[in-house]
Amino acid sequence: MCAKATMEDFEALLKESFEIDTPEEGSVVKGKVIAIEAGQAIIDVGYKMEGRIDLKEFANPGEQPDINVGDEVEVYLDRVENSRGEAQISREKAKREEAWDRLEKAYASETRVDGAIFGRVKGGFTVDLGGAVAFLPGSQVDVRPVRDAGPLMGLKQPFQILKMDRRRGNIVVSRRAILEESRAEQRAEVIGNLTEGQTVDGVVKNITEYGAFVDLGGVDGLLHVTDMAWRRVNHPSEILAIGETVKVQVIKINKETHRISLGMKQLQEDPWDAVERAYPLQSVHKGRVTNITDYGAFVELEAGVEGLVHVSEMSWTKKNVHPGKIVSTSQEVDVMVLEIDSAKRRVSLGLKQTQRNPWEVFAENNPVGSTIEGEVKNITEFGLFIGLENDIDGMVHLSDLSWDQRGEDAIANYRKGDTVKAAVSEVDVEKERISLSVKALGEDTFTDAVDGVKRGSVITVEVTAIEEGGVEVDYNGAKSFIRRSDLSRDRGDQRPERFQVGDKVDVRVTNIDPKTRRMGLSIKAREIAEEKEAVEQYGSSDSGASLGDILGAALKGDKN
């Protein structure tokens, strides 16, 4: 009976063992640590199977293995039996499978997961998410570029899963998304506590050409360069440094974009409030040139108060010159206040008004009729320009060059650089014109020659040249020309060749033209006038006396 019972028990156990399925390869099973030796943990996974796993698979990055005999662990069954007759198992793969299940749930619910950065790869870093390895792109590490990621390595911290593909084993995570989310919460809280017009302390975090970003305790505000000081600031680095603590005023808050505008100058007294009182019109002040443009120069009268010297108000004499050739940046100059517009915060200044008008000075020092000496600066078709004192010019018109020559001929005698003496004939200060005369310094031979001579007078001239059309004659130094038709009443005697140079001839003056400086002379007119006079004095031909008798009597009377 005993043997029969034992046999039945054996058959029952055998049947039970056949009914129990062997674990499926590629699945996660539970096991128990039964020994630790030679850097490995021996694990009984049941089913009369044991396997070995390296201790390092039980350690988190940067930590020591946490495993003891008797611990129950989940392992991944690769193969039921390897070449040594042992089960081929893996703790890492089990953790990976477990991690993927957990991470897929977190990805679906958009919840954060904990992990640690443990390596650097091309384009970013590797992150251990508790058994699964994810890729952290360099752009997703922080809200700003990170130069040194050393302090972040091995540090357990939250991440957001951006993308995952279990089939390909790809997971992409972001640390930046977590920071931006907490930053947004912090920003909203800080902004909620700020009001426009409030004065707060902040730390300069960054400086650009157009301003500086100031940290107000979790939120940045922009301090524009134009709101740093009342004076002109060329670059924010002139008055600010990174890391410096500054007191600023909240100028504007945009609740939608969370942008904050800050100001420093608003905490200082506005110098424009006292400009009209400090700078009366026509008053002269010292200033510093801060900027030069094509249309003028800006001059700082005091910190925050600048005025413009327009190019037309820079020099009395330099009309078409760039302002940069008259003044230079940082130069100290004297300026006169010409106009103030407080509403537009503008001051018009004058540079030339601080010096005397050079035309006024010239008029005082050189009255009309006085003699000046200067260099020929320019020669034009209508006259000479003579350089005078204080960079001004005077003009000698063609008609004022010579008494004896036409202006077009006289101007050919001058060259640029020649030194010329001239008389001041007119000074127009308002129009900035000075008229000069060269001929006024010489003798007017024509005027002297014709002094006392009137139209109809008979004068004696000397023949100086004989030409085909007539003869040239001289009267006290004044040249004139007698045309052929005026050489005689008789056509037969109207021959220039009957005269010789040096002959003295009586002529009648028919015209005096001071403008052309010429006298109209005629022998014919003299003869006709003499004949008329003889007829009137000695009788008329109508009384019976012949013209020859009358002229003979007239000549006889002249002899007596």
UniProtKB/TrEMBL annotation:
InterPro entries: NA-bd_OB-fold (IPR012340), Ribos_protein_bS1-like (IPR050437), Ribosomal_bS1 (IPR000110), Ribosomal_protein_S1-like (IPR035104), S1_domain (IPR003029)
Keywords carried by this UniProt record: Repeat, Ribonucleoprotein, Ribosomal protein, RNA-binding
GO molecular function, one term: structural constituent of ribosome
Gene Ontology BP terms: translation
Pfam families: S1
SMART domains according to UniProt: S1
The keyword Lyase belongs to this UniProt entry's keyword annotation: no
S1 motif domain segment(s): 26-92, 110-176, 197-265, 282-352, 369-439, 456-524
Any single Gene Ontology cellular-component annotation: cytosolic small ribosomal subunit
Domain of life: Bacteria
Function as written in the Swiss-Prot or TrEMBL entry: Binds mRNA; thus facilitating recognition of the initiation point. It is needed to translate mRNA with a short Shine-Dalgarno (SD) purine-rich sequence.
PANTHER family, sorted: 30S RIBOSOMAL PROTEIN S1, SMALL RIBOSOMAL SUBUNIT PROTEIN BS1C
Assigned protein family: Belongs to the bacterial ribosomal protein bS1 family.
Protein name: 30S ribosomal protein S1
Organism: Pseudotabrizicola alkalilacus
Species classification: Bacteria, Pseudomonadati, Pseudomonadota, Alphaproteobacteria, Rhodobacterales
